[in-house]
């Protein structure tokens, strides 16, 4: 039943901000003194889905379960609906007797533009929409260079940010909520977000604990352990050297302000400042991806460096399939792709190696790799994913030199020197020693036979010779430059 007073109820629209601590929209709604109706909408119409892929659906199911429990422990309730927010929010406000809706900004250009139109639509019906910035340390709109232009390179962006950056303290989580109208809710299980027959996500549960409590436990573990060696170990896929906070960031289960203050406090209590500063710069890179989207549009749709509009991508369906399945015949690449499939996550260093191999050795468009990551990563963040893939391709911001081509063998030897990462995810090579494991095709048959390896049978031969792949990539870059120069000359002649 709707409230008897139109001003008694506030509607809180949760999206990728599934937390209670440092949630500006929730905090403001609680401070208003109104009863609350908390809603999550699974968007199946309109301009954006709520989750980009199947692995994210798994995470969303468990994160929403935790959020609902956290709200209920404080006297609240989470209402679930499916549809287009432009249609559902006015109807929900009417059901709840609410004249105010609170939400946090999505920080994606097309979604924020949609939300602006939605706010105007609500205003015309007498409903006040209140939006908040919640997912970044920096306000993208106001952080400009000395010429009042947006930054295009991360290092000056971050250096300038650090001169003035003083994030406010995290907003407290509410201790008690007063529930408003009891709205009908869909059942989360009916959304069928969890895989079955087969349950390909069975390995996810070993590695991940979705939800706000899981995010804070992950941060605690990182600060008390891996952080100390973070500047070096972050590049070692054979070690637990990263924070693994990325899916918690992607779902808004912890805010960057909370992480900033917790990390700084850790350093001030005796932790080393250098690891903290390096770690926070990576949090800053996430801000930079959002910043680029704000100022330059959706990087998923267009090349940041327009020269790449002329890049001669190849139709290589067989190579793409082998890459997805971890069957390229290049051990470090295959280990990375199998880690992704088994755990829903991939180490940052091997993301770069695997992406470079797909783009440069196989000639496959970066959008194909981006789409696969968005379907298989539990931390799929559309801004970060696009900026990262374009950086590797050379078409993105700060991608210098843009023609960089990772050698997966030397990368494996440098960052997985004992072969532990490869042995974990490519067990058919487990008996090879560290000198042989990253380039088994270079080994005598006698060595391979002793390790139980038969190339082409127990493990695939490389689908492309690395030297050939590198030469093809360099030729493609030259072709791109030639076509871009010709297009520029034609444009100049017309003017």
Descriptive overview:
The chain has 495 residues and is an alpha/beta fold. It has three domains: 9-134, HUPs (Rossmann fold, 3-Layer(aba) Sandwich), CATH 3.40.50.620; 136-169 and 211-296, Alpha Horseshoe (Serine Threonine Protein Phosphatase 5, Tetratricopeptide repeat); 306-476, DNA Cyclobutane Dipyrimidine Photolyase, subunit A, domain 3 (Orthogonal Bundle), CATH 1.10.579.10. It contains 20 helices and five strands. Helix 2 links the parallel strand 2 (35-43) and strand 3 (78-83). Helix 14 (348-361) crosses helix 16 (382-393). Mean pLDDT is 94; it is low at 1-6 and 46-50.
Question: How much beta, percentage-wise?
Answer: 5-15%
Which regions have little confidence, pLDDT < 50, spanning 5+ residues?
Answer: 1-6, 46-50
Within CATH, the superfamily of the largest domain carries the name DNA Cyclobutane Dipyrimidine Photolyase, subunit A, domain 3
| N-end to C-end Cα span | 66 Å
If you average the pLDDT, what whole number results? 94
| Morphology call | globular
SS-derived structural category:
alpha/beta
Q: Considering DSSP H and I runs of 4 or more, what fraction of the residues is helical?
A: 40-55%
Radius of gyration: 24 Å
